[in-house]
Specification:
Bound molecules: NADPH dihydro-nicotinamide-adenine-dinucleotide phosphate
Mean pLDDT: 95
Helix content: 25-40%
Strand order of the largest sheet: 3-2-1-4-5
Protein name: NmrA domain-containing protein
Organism: Citrus sinensis
Structural class: alpha/beta
Strand content: 15-25%
Radius of gyration: 20 Å
Number of helices: 9
Distance between the termini: 40 Å
Length: 264
């Protein structure tokens, strides 16, 4: 496989650290942006040092220092950004507009993979608040990339398994109960769940693949397409127990979202 020089931005994040691991495993020359704002966050510092021990190169740079972004981008062929973008946590998707400018100015990048890794935002025009900001902002970044003529790949990873499977597909829950579960409606609509380490590996395998150039790559492993009932059945088999089931209607679910906090 062709080896590249890869810069990972957001490498200390939930997905980012897996991208660093996959990049190193595939033998790419891996650069990880280290931002001074990290301050005394000792766990992040130690994570960065562990990347270095595994062969990554740390590059100092900040979204508050445009030239540092240009300098970092000039070191590599491929830029992957995994900056935060979850409305219930931290949401920084639009910061990438500065990165797009830096990539355009540097002029050497053969492929940019922006922070996407979710449901294809191009198909989410009807998404609801408060979560839709993620899709709207990702579309703004896409337009900037395409207007700048930067070669790209968008990775649509559907649902992160950790967030969605851990809590048996119940929003706001990431641990499975051994007693009960609330089904969304009848629990039969299917969704696609992808393990985060797999997302990272598929992403790294796409960076030099001509089939993914200027396209969206959809991760849809057939065995990972499951209804909530199927997820619950799998858990029930694992624990050898049947859960008590109730259900929440669409109307009740939407009412429960009222007043949920806005992204920050
Ligand atoms: P995280 O919340 O774990 O954050 C990722 C990175 O963002 C961190 O490394 C952090 O750096 C960096 N960051 C935050 N603020 C700044 C800033 N001001 N300047 C520079 N870097 C900053 O992100 P996730 O891994 O949860 O999300 C990555 C992508 O995956 C997003 O696009 C998100 O929408 C998507 N996603 C998809 C999901 C799905 O189910 N499909 C679920 C969750 C996320 P530092 O460590 O230095 O603070």
């Amino acid at each position: 496989m062709e080896k590249s020089k890869v810069l990972i931005i957001g490498g200390t994040g939930y997905l980012g650290k897996r991208l660093v691991k996959a990049s190193l495993a595939l033998g790419h020359e891996t650069y990880v942006l280290h931002r001074p704002e990290i301050g005394v966050d000792i766990e992040k510092v130690q994570m960065l040092l562990s990347f270095k021990e595994q062969g990554a190169k740390l590059v100092s740079g900040s979204f508050n220092d445009y030239q540092s972004l240009v300098n970092a981008v000039k070191l590599v062929d491929v830029v992957i950004c995994a900056i935060s973008g979850v409305h219930i946590r931290s949401h920084q998707i639009l910061l990438q507009l500065k990165l797009v400018d830096a990539i355009k100015e540097a002029g050497n990048v053969k492929r940019f993979l922006p922070s996407e890794f979710g449901t294809d935002p191009a198909k989410m025009a009807n998404a609801m608040e408060p979560g839709r900001v993620t899709f709207d902002d990702k579309m703004v970044v896409r337009k900037a990339i395409e207007d700048a003529g930067i070669p790209f790949t968008y990775v649509s990873a559907n649902c992160f398994a950790g967030y969605f499977l851990g809590g048996l597909c119940q929003p706001g829950s990431i641990l499975p109960s051994k007693d009960s579960v609330v089904l969304l409606g009848d629990g039969n609509p299917k969704a696609i769940y992808v393990d985060e380490d797999d997302i990272a590996m598929y992403t790294m395998k796409a960076i030099n693949d001509p089939r993914t150039l200027n396209r969206t790559m959809y991760l849809r492993p057939p065995k990972n397409i499951l209804s909530q009932r199927e997820v619950v059945e799998t858990w029930e088999k694992l624990i050898g127990k049947t859960l008590q089931k109730s259900s929440i209607s669409k109307e009740e679910f939407l009412a429960s979202m009222k007043g949920t906090r806005d992204p920050y």
